[in-house]
Amino acid sequence: MDAITNEFNKYFAKWKITLPEENIQKRQKGSIFQAGWKINFIFGIKDDAKYLEYYAIHRMTNDRHIIIYKNVEKEHLECLESPLVYSPAINERQREHNKQNRRVKEGLSYKSLV
Asked: Does residue 52 sit in helix, strand or coil?
């Protein structure tokens, strides 16, 4: 897990955020609340390759949903979109936006990332 951990820690170094050592050793899911970030993470194995998947939220920027594989390759996944403000007469674009957010949230909830 060293390469994965290093890549995560490098990305969040600016905020002095690192993965908790206990979670790394036990490959246990967890959450980090620091420097305005809320980061939920899980460990997994896909095609015999270990990975770390995380969903990071900060009110000053867009969400991030990323998988880091053992070879340090990253996969950027879908995130929740900002809520839309709309009039009572909701249009098709707004319906699709809300439908997309529900779908993404269900997937994130299933993995305990939100």
From this structure: strand
**Rounded distance, CA 32 to CA 54, Å?**
10
Note the pLDDT tens digit of each residue in 30-84: 999 999 999 999 999 988 899 999 999 999 999 999 999 999 999 999 999 887 6
Give CA separation, 103 vs 22, 23, 49, 81, in Å.
32, 28, 26, 11
pTM above 0.85, yes or no: yes
Q: Assess if residue 40 is contained within a domain.
A: yes
**Environment class of residue 102 by beta-carbon count within 10 Å: exposed (0-12), middle (13-18) or buried (19+)?**
exposed
Domain that holds residue 50: 2-80
Structure tokens that stand for 66 in this block:
């990323």
User: What domain count does the chain have?
Assistant: 1
Q: Which tokens in the block code for residue 1?
A: 């897990």
Range list of H helices, the chain: 2-11, 21-26, 92-110
- Which tokens go with 11? 């990305």
